[in-house]
Design brief:
4 strands, about 5% strand, two-stranded antiparallel ribbon
Length: about 200
């Protein structure tokens, strides 16, 4: 036995001791056991966003709210942390796809990708490519049937095969700073702390 437990998909889960630490932090912050969208935004200092940025943050929150009850409970929270910290790349790509697929129709069109990438850049300052360059690069490299829409299969296969694109996509959804905020009591970029033990 080691410090972590393997699941059927080969993903390593957060060890019980660390899960307990996360549980204590979560319950101290949210005694009801539920985190609201407003609390999520407050925790991350995301008030006063423009409409598109606000919609993106809402979408991130809603992908973590797996039972769609309007709250993130501890099980949903720890699943999100586990995905961000220890998830395999294909699991993360599926999650990224859900974020990019703003209308939920099972495919990503250029407008959705452009809007989300512009919002992500506004939120995290990532400036490797302009949103238009990024969108054109993605569709040029991975829209294999050239229909102007990306299916989940095209997105995952194409992104995994293109290491530069994979790096850009991964960096655009780098949540390490978010976890630092949670772990360090709302003080981002302080270094040290619980996150480094993972």
């Amino acid at each position: 036995m080691g410090n972590s437990k393997s699941t059927a998909g080969g993903q390593t889960t957060i060890p019980a001791k660390e899960t307990y630490v996360w549980y204590r932090k979560f319950m101290m912050e949210y005694p009801s056991g539920l985190q609201t969208l407003h609390e999520f935004k407050t925790l991350l200092g995301l008030q006063g966003l423009n409409q598109k940025a606000n919609q993106h943050v809402d979408q991130v929150y809603n992908t973590f709210d797996m039972n769609k009850d309007g709250f993130i409970d501890f099980v949903e929270f720890i699943a999100a942390v586990n995905l961000v910290v220890r998830g395999k790349m294909d699991q993360k790509l599926k999650w990224y796809f859900k974020l990019y697929d703003a209308d939920g129709n099972g495919s990503i069109d250029k407008k959705e990708l452009l809007n989300i990438f512009m919002t992500v850049q506004n939120l995290n300052g990532q400036q490797t490519l302009s949103p238009e360059e990024f969108t054109n690069l993605v569709f040029h490299n991975i829209d294999i049937n050239h229909d102007g829409e990306l299916t989940l299969e095209e997105f995952i296969n194409g992104t995994e095969k293109d290491q530069d694109l994979l790096e850009i996509v991964s960096k655009s959804f780098d949540f390490s700073n978010v976890l630092k905020v949670i772990c360090n009591g709302k003080q981002p970029d302080t270094g040290g702390g619980f996150l480094q033990t993972m």
